[in-house]
Amino acid sequence: MARRVGRISPFNITALALGMAFLYLPIVILVIYSFNASRLVTVWGGWSLRWYHEFFNDRAMLDAAWMSLRVAAVSATIATLLGTLAAVGLVRGERFRGRTLFSGMLYAPLVMPEVISGLSLLLLFVALNAERGFWTVTIAHTTLTMCFVTVVVQSRLASLDRSLEEAAMDLGCDPVQAFVRVTLPLILPAIAAGWMLAFTLSLDDVVIASFTTGPGSATLPIRIYSEVRLGVKPEINAICTMVIALIAVLIVIASLAAKLSSSEAKSAAPL
Amino acid sequence: MSGQSPEIDTAKINTAVAQATAPANDTPLLRVEGVSKKFGDFRAVDRLSLDIKAGEFFALLGPSGCGKTTLLRMLAGFETPDEGRILLGGRDIAPVLPHERPVNMMFQNYALFPHLSVRDNIAFGLKRAGMAGAAIDTRVGEMVALVKLEGMEKRRPDQLSGGQKQRVALARSLARRPKVLLLDEPLAALDKKLRESTQLELMELQRRLGMTFIVVTHDQEEAMTMANRIGVMDAGRLEQVATPRDLYEAPASRWVAQFVGDVNLFDGEVTSQEDHRLTIATRDGGSIVVAEPRDLIGKTMVSVAIRPEKVRLSRRDPASDAGTLQAVNRLEGVVTDVSYLGGSTVYKIKLDSGAVVRSSIANTARLDIDTLSAGRRVVAWFTPDDCMVLEK
Questions:
Q1: Of the residues A7, B14, B85, B331, which has the maximum number of CB atoms within 10 A of its CB?
Q2: Looking at B249, B282, B297, which one is the last position of a domain?
Q3: For the whole model, what pTM was predicted?
Q4: Among candidates B1, B115, B176 on the partner chain, residue whose Cβ is nearest the Cβ of A171
Q5: Are residues A264 and B189, on separate chains, in Cβ contact within 8 Å?
Q6: What distance in Å separates residue A189's CA from the closest CA in chain B?
Q7: Would you call A271 and B110 a contact, using CB atoms and an 8 Å cutoff?
């Protein structure tokens, strides 16, 4: 008989426990202490929702959170639109001159240090004499997250059988109708996953946002960062716990969408 | 959502086709005139001309990479010819986009829309044509019945077997009632048994609908089973266009003879020609007498081709009992290999001259007491009429 897959041995359990602890213990501690009644971050004073209550009465924090959510939603939407167009152009478009250069440049923000992206965007906005605030952060986040969307959509599109679009055209669709009626429904899960990825990336970013934001429009990560410098308040734990919960939900949805997408890709693949 | 323009254009072409096909039946429905298509430096299709009549079941046969799929894709409108014209019902369809052509294609991998049900896949082209809802339901019902998929309408393509997918693809491409149906390797993905039964169904369907079918295949048996006429392609050119029988019994070239079926070839030189009989001295030192109906043998260097089933074997000299010594070619040798194939047995005979001849003998009796085994001396013989003379 073959060895059972995933056999549980003491060694495996220890390795798993240590690995998980390394990754998630800090987060678990953060979550637990967000329910701490004590004012001191490191001293346990019993369970309480006090700091959540505090947060919802903290005007400045709430503004920052609202700002972050707006930036994330708007930049993710623009990035998804542009990223999808770029992916369609790269995979389905005619082989244009400089195509390789274009696809290389699209990936540059993936590996570019954020400090450099942030600084160059800051210089651009200063040169343009743009008033820094909501829109500058949103534009900066769009440039950051667009390439992630492109990567996700591009891989899905590349795995899609070209003859599906040809079949649609053969059956009376012009190229635009073929895209809307056949290609778009099939890459929609990837587009959704791309949007959620862009949303979480934007929500999470502190470096680029701090370069490109202006006075009075701090995002949540910037606000938290500046608060922490003055000393960690338990309220921060409560905020972080809520952000973690939001991101966890989005990641689960995104991975479900990606799973749906790949299972459909399988059935669409040639025999 | 579906624009009216495709519908109108299709109607225009349909009437053009009807006008061209109705009065004189001898004008071809589809005419390919000197069409070429290059991909970079590679000539996929090379100045190819072809006429296809309405109602024909035509097969494009050739090895992979011979350009047959490219030609089909040009007919569908997915590729544009670099040179030449394609006329459908007398009208040049070069400027007509794929979605406006009265031609539908069945794709090799079926290209079923995975996000749509069987019903919606079949109805897809009808909706684009702006057909009314009730009419679509009726037509889809007809199509589902035609390909025997009743009860499967609500399934998704990934819930279907290979054979069922093939039927959905067929129904979808037939639903718009195209003037010409293009089939790209329609049976390649099916197993042998299913392929054979589907061949017969396709033939029956084509006869019943009276549609023109053009099928691309690399399988010569499939082409010969289904098609009225076969165009054999190699390196972007049509080597021969003929009925299955002519293709097999009177191939136009050595290449066609070898591609379609099995063949024994002898290279040689024409030494004398009298009374429609040619005598050919073969390179291995023998001589073969052949009947030559075509009187235009320009070259002296030729190949003699004999199909294995026309080579008969005997242990004794056939001339002694046939009494027609002049008319029979006899080659002596030793059986080296016997392959029993069920319906027939193939013998390999090494001739005394050194050449190898294959002979295929039908197993007409269940109990064969007279079987030839390896090592036995035999006479391989065939009549002049069974030989084909091919110029190189």
A1: B331
A2: B249
A3: 0.78
A4: B176
A5: no
A6: 12
A7: yes
